[in-house]
Amino acid sequence: MIRCHCLAHGRRQCSDIAEVFPVECQVVIAVLTHVFDHDAEARDHQRSPEARLLYHQEVSRPLMETLTRWLDTQLDERLVEPNSALGKAIASRQGPWATLTRFLEIAGAPLENNLVERALKLCIRQRKASLFSKTAYSASIASVLTSLIATCRYAGVNAIEYLVALQEHRAEVLADPSAWLPWTYQGTLVPP
Q1: The pLDDT value given to residue 93
Q2: pLDDT band at 190, cuts 50/70/90?
Q3: Number of structural domains the chain divides into
Q4: Statement to judge: residues 100 and 155 lie in one domain
Q5: Whole-angstrom Cα distance, residue 150 to residue 167?
Q6: 192 to each of 131, 158, 189, how far by Cα in Å?
Q7: Domain stops at, among 51, 81, 104
Q8: Mean of pLDDT over the chain
Q9: Full-prediction pTM beyond 0.70?
Q10: Is the pLDDT of residue 191 over 70?
Q11: CA separation (Å) from 16 to 89, 112, 153?
Q12: Is residue 163 part of a domain?
């Protein structure tokens, strides 16, 4: 496992304080927007992880190097108050810079982790909702169903159809659970 930090957080931190520091935040937002545009272009052209890495090294690395120098200058030359919201945002980007720029070193490394964060938010909402379940058993069943529904959603499968198929084919599911995963179950259904 290789640790990567999320560039979308850096962009979001700056957009949240852009009204107070419009010029400085626009510099960071503009650079990160170009980097994300490069990543979208690589995805649109269906580049392999290795080709995407080379592309980012060629077009995004100079932008990121310029940005890191600019960020360092802001704090080193006291152009930004370190305790201000902008100073804290810059400092929070400087520490994990190596993990923020993994996409320039490792093929397939993501720029952001929004997909994972959305999945975690679902778990957090379910945990909070479980507080209002009548029993611990009903809370655990609700958590299992939430997990199945989320898995179906990310696999592009209709969750209702999947759950109905599991109920209609209980014996087959118990006999071979791996054949009844959201992304494999349709191959096991026998046409009527």
Answers
A1: 77
A2: low
A3: 2
A4: no
A5: 18
A6: 43, 19, 9
A7: 104
A8: 88
A9: no
A10: no
A11: 10, 17, 30
A12: yes
